[in-house]
C-alpha cells in the first residue's frame, strides 16, 4: 500500500471516530439559579437631618498678660496641663513693689498720727472757742489742720491699696479653669505691664461648635417653622444636635443650639450658628474639625433599607427586588436621610416587596434567582461603620 492510501485510510478512520463521539455526547448540565438574600423593607419612624461642617471652639479663651512691669521670676505650671481657677502660674519679682508697699504703709501710719493729734487739738480747743477764750481765727486753724490730716490719710490709704494690688499682681494666677498652653516667656526675661502675653488658657467643659447654614437650608427651615413643623432656636427652644469628629462614624456627642447670628453674611451667603456640648471626658478640643447634624422637622413614618441594597446607575439610585416568580426586577427609588446605616426610601418600593440585600453583583434584571430570607437590620451596623453620612440629606420631592 502506497503513502497516499495510508493517508486516506487515516482520514477516514478519524472521521469515523469524530462521528461516533458526536452521536454519543450528552446535553450540558443545568446551571442552578444564583442564591441571593432578600428581605422586606423595614417600617420605622425617621427624622430628616441637615449636615454641616464646623469647628470646635472653647467657651472662653483668655490671654494671660502681665499686669505689672518686672522680671519674670518663676513658672509654676506644666505646659499643656489642666489648671483650676486661682492656681498660681507665674511669679514676677515682687521686691520693688514690696518696698513701695512698705513705704506706703509708713505714710499711712504718719497720717494716722497726724489725724489723732489734730483731733485732740480740735476737741481741746472747741470748748474754749465756744466760751470765747480763743479767737475764731485760731480755732479755724485747728479745724483746718484736722481736715488736712484726714485728707492726707485717705490719700495715703489709697496709695497703699494700689501698692498692695501691684504686689498681688506679681503673682499671676489662672482667671478660669481649663487647659493652659506653653509659657511664651522664660524666667529671667523682662515683662511689660498690659503688653506681654505670658500664656493662654482655654476652657474645656462645656465647649462650642460653630457652623454655617447655607441660604437654601435656612429658607427651608424657616418654612418649616412657619408651618409649625419645627421649633425655632431664636425663641429659646432647645434643639438637639449631634456632633461628629473626623475619626468617628456616628454622632455620639449631643448638644443644643444656643446662638443664631442676627444676619446672613452677604460674602458667603451663610448664617453663623453655635451649638454647646458637654465635654466631661475631654474628647473635644478647641480647633477640631467637626460635622454637625441638625434634625429638621418632625419624625415621620417611612420604609428603610440597608445601604448595601442600593445601587447607582448614572446618578439614579435603584434597588433590585424579586417578584412572585423569583425573577429579578429593577426599581428606581428616591432616597432620604441615612440613620444608623438604614436609608430612608421616599418613593419606589412597597412594604411587601422582597428587596435583594446581598448578592447584587451576581444578578441582573430578568434573571431567575433562588431567594433566601435575610434580615435587613443585620447589615445596618456594618454599613454605618463603613460609610460616612452624606453632607446633606436628599431633598424631599
User: What is the end-to-end distance?
Assistant: 90 Å
Q: What average pLDDT do the residues reach? A: 80
The helix content is 25-40%
CATH topology of the largest domain: Elongation Factor Tu (Ef-tu), domain 3
> How many β-strand stretches?
22
How many domains would you count in the coordinates?
2
Q: Low-confidence parts, pLDDT < 50 over ≥5 residues?
A: 1-7, 9-13, 15-24, 382-397
Our estimate of the beta-strand percent is: 25-35%
Key structural traits:
OB fold (Dihydrolipoamide Acetyltransferase, E2P), alpha+beta, elongated, 397 residues, Elongation Factor Tu (Ef-tu), domain 3, 2 domains, disordered C terminus, disordered N terminus, single chain
Give a brief rundown of this model.
This protein is of the alpha+beta class and 397 residues long. The chain has helices at 3-24, 95-131, 136-169, 215-226, 380-386, and strands at residues 35-39, 42-58, 61-65, 70-75, 82-83, 88-92, 171-173, 178-180, 190-191, 197-202, 207-214, 240-245, 253-260, 270-277, 289-306, 311-313, 316-322, 328-332, 334-339, 342-347, 354-358, 370-373. The chain folds into two domains: 37-58 and 205-386, Efflux pump adaptor protein, beta barrel domain (Elongation Factor Tu (Ef-tu), domain 3), CATH 2.40.30.170; 62-202, OB fold (Dihydrolipoamide Acetyltransferase, E2P) (Beta Barrel).
Describe this structure in words.
This protein is α+β, with helices and mostly antiparallel strands. It has 2 domains: about 35-60 and about 205-385, Efflux pump adaptor protein, beta barrel domain (Elongation Factor Tu (Ef-tu), domain 3); about 60-200, OB fold (Dihydrolipoamide Acetyltransferase, E2P), CATH 2.40.50. Helix content is about 30%, strand content about 35%. It has 5 helices and 22 strands. It has helices at about 5-25, 95-130, 135-170, 215-225, 380-385; strands at about 35-40, 40-60, 60-65, 70-75, 80-85, 90, 170-175, 180, 190, 195-200, 205-215, 240-245, 255-260, 270-275, 290-305, 310-315, 315-320, 330, 335-340, 340-345, 355-360, 370-375. Strands 1, 16, 17, 18, 21 and 22 form a 6-stranded mixed β-sheet that branches. A 6-stranded antiparallel barrel has the order 2-11-14-13-12-15.
Amino acid at each position: 500500500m502506497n503513502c497516499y492510501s495510508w493517508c486516506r485510510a487515516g482520514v477516514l478512520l478519524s472521521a469515523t471516530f469524530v462521528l461516533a463521539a458526536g452521536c454519543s455526547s450528552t446535553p450540558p448540565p443545568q446551571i442552578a439559579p444564583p442564591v441571593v438574600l432578600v428581605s422586606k423593607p423595614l417600617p420605622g419612624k425617621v427624622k430628616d437631618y441637615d449636615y454641616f461642617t464646623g469647628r470646635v471652639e472653647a467657651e472662653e479663651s483668655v490671654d494671660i498678660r502681665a499686669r505689672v512691669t518686672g522680671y519674670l521670676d518663676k513658672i509654676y505650671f506644666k505646659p499643656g496641663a489642666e489648671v483650676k481657677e486661682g492656681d498660681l502660674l507665674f511669679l514676677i519679682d515682687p521686691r520693688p513693689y514690696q518696698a513701695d508697699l512698705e513705704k506706703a504703709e509708713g505714710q499711712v501710719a504718719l497720717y494716722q498720727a497726724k489725724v489723732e493729734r489734730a483731733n485732740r487739738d480740735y476737741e481741746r480747743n472747741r470748748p474754749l472757742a465756744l466760751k470765747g477764750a480763743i479767737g475764731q481765727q485760731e480755732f479755724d486753724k485747728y479745724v483746718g489742720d484736722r481736715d488736712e490730716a484726714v485728707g492726707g490719710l485717705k490719700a495715703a490709704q489709697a496709695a497703699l491699696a494700689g501698692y498692695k494690688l501691684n504686689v498681688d499682681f506679681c503673682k499671676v494666677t489662672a482667671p478660669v479653669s481649663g487647659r493652659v498652653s506653653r509659657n511664651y516667656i522664660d524666667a529671667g526675661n523682662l515683662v511689660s505691664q498690659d503688653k506681654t502675653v505670658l500664656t493662654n488658657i482655654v476652657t474645656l467643659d462645656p465647649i462650642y461648635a460653630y457652623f454655617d447654614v447655607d441660604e437654601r437650608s435656612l429658607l427651608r427651615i424657616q418654612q418649616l417653622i412657619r408651618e409649625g413643623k419645627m421649633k425655632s432656636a431664636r425663641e429659646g427652644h432647645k434643639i438637639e444636635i449631634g456632633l461628629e469628629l473626623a475619626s468617628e462614624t456616628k454622632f455620639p456627642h449631643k448638644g443644643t443650639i444656643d446662638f443664631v447670628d442676627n444676619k446672613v453674611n452677604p460674602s458667603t451667603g451663610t448664617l453663623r450658628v453655635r451649638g454647646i456640648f458637654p465635654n466631661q471626658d475631654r474628647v473635644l478640643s478647641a480647633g477640631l474639625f467637626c460635622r454637625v447634624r441638625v434634625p429638621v422637622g418632625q419624625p415621620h413614618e417611612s420604609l428603610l433599607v440597608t445601604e448595601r441594597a442600593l445601587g447607582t446607575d448614572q446618578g439614579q439610585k435603584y434597588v433590585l427586588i424579586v417578584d412572585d416568580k423569583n425573577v429579578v426586577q429593577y426599581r428606581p427609588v428616591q432616597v432620604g436621610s441615612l440613620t444608623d446605616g438604614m436609608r430612608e426610601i421616599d418613593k419606589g418600593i412597597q412594604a411587601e416587596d422582597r428587596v435583594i440585600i446581598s448578592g447584587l453583583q451576581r444578578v441582573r434584571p430578568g434573571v431567575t434567582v433562588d431567594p433566601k430570607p435575610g434580615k435587613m437590620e443585620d447589615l445596618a451596623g456594618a454599613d454605618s461603620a463603613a460609610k460616612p453620612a452624606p453632607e446633606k440629606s436628599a431633598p424631599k420631592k
